[in-house]
Design brief:
- With 327 residues, this protein is an alpha+beta fold.
- The protein has a domain of 175 residues: Probable tRNA modification gtpase trme, domain 1 (Gyrase A, domain 2), CATH 3.30.1360.120.
- It is 15% helix and 31% strand.
- The protein is built from 5 helices and 16 strands.
- Strands 15-12-13-14-11-16 form a 6-stranded antiparallel β-sheet.
- It is globular and about 55 Å long.
Amino acid sequence: MNPTENPRPHYSSDAGYTQLTNRRVVRISGPGADKFVQGQFSQHVDEVTQTQSLRATACTPKGRAYCVTRMVRHGQDLLMDLDAELADDTLSHLRKYLMLFRGTSMDVLPSARILGLTGKPAAITACGDAAESLSRPGQTLATGSGILIRIEDTSDQTARYEWWQLEGDQPLPEELPELPMAHWNAASISAGVPWLTAQTREAYVPQMLNLQHLQGVHFKKGCYTGQEVIARMHFLGQLKKSLFRLRFEGSDTAPEPGTRLLCEGKSVGEVVNAELTSEQAGEMLAVIRHDAQQGTLALEGMNTVTVTMQPLPYPVPEQQPATQADT
C-alpha cells in the first residue's frame, strides 16, 4: 500500500501545553559524566552543547535499545529524560557502569518537569520572542531556570517544543490551554517519533526505530555498549525492517504496543505506539518488514479494523526497495 493522505485531521493543532507527567529528568554530574555517557549511549557527547540537544539510546550488548532519551547540556552536567515506567530499571542498569567513575553521580531531579508545547505561538507565549529563533530540531534556548528545545514538527508542519523546567516553583503558562497527554502522543506519532514501553523495551536495534533519522545515533563515535551490532547493521546494509506510520479505522480502542501486524496471515511487524484521534480511528507507529510494506496489513485480533500506510514527515531511504541504503 502506498502512503495515503488522511482526509480527517489527526488531532487539533491549536497552540497549547501538555504536562509530560510520564517523564523523569535525570542529572549526570561529576568528573566522569561525559566519559560515562560516551561509553553507554549512541550519541557523541561532544555534540551535546549549550545550544544543541540530541537524542540517544542505551542498548544491550546485542544492540537492542532499552532506553531512548534526549541529552541536554546544563553547565558542566548532562541531563536526560526517562519514561517514568521504565526509569527505575534503566537507572539500576546504568549504575552498574557508573560505579567505575568515582565522584560521578546520576540522580532523578524530583522538582523538575517537562512541558510539551504545541505550535510556535505557544513557545513564544511561554518563553518570549526569543523562542522564534529555534528553527530546527535540537536547537535549545536557555529560559531562566529552564531550557526550551525545538523538536520535530508534526506531519502537518506544526512546530513542537519541550520546555524543561528544572525548578519546581515555575508557574504553568496559564495564558495557554492545557492539552491532554493523548494529544501530545498523537502529535509525536504524527511526527514519526517513537517511545519505548515495557512491551517494546529491548525489542529493537535503534535503526529499526528510525532513530538514525531523528538525531539519535552517531555512527562515527568510538565504542559503546551495543555499538558493534549497530555499526554492522549500518555499514553492511542489514536493516530489513524499520518504523512506519499508519492509520487504523474501525476500533474505539488503540492497539497495544507489541500487537502483531499481519500480511496474508503472516506476522510482518509489531505496533510500537498507538493513539486514538477520533472515536473510531487513530494513528500508530509500527516496525514492519520492508518487503511487506506494499501488502495488505491487518492487526492481529482486530479483524474488523482497517490499516493504511501514512507518510512519515522525514525521508527513510532504507524503506525504498530500489535504494541500496547504507544502513
